[in-house]
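lol ok so funny story. i was supposed to be doing the assay writeup but got distracted and ended up predicting the structure for this chain instead. priorities right. anyway since i did it might as well share w the group, maybe its usefull for someone
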Amino acid sequence: MIKNFGLGLFFLAVLIQSVDVRAEYRAYQYLVKTNDPYAVATNAKAQYIVSTLNPQMYKSYHGGSFITVDLLRTWICPGYTGRGQKICDHPYDTEDGDL
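and the output, tada:
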């Protein structure tokens, strides 16, 4: 019994080491507008924002009922956003603006 357990544990370790692990995350682009009546007096403008927070999380974290969050587009980025790394660009964006 112990011999079979050791053999199974060996094969499990080999399987884990041979698995190719790739991280990815989703990026979202929003148009964020204010609903604050006092912001109208200060000419607050809408902003284009790229974030890794989904629409509900973004709205609740950044202002709740005081902002409107319109989802413009979303895409998958390889890697991770740890250590303050920049969120990847949309795959259809090019430097000269052509598709």
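The longest strand covers residues 67-78. Residues 22-81 form one domain.
back to the writeup now i swear
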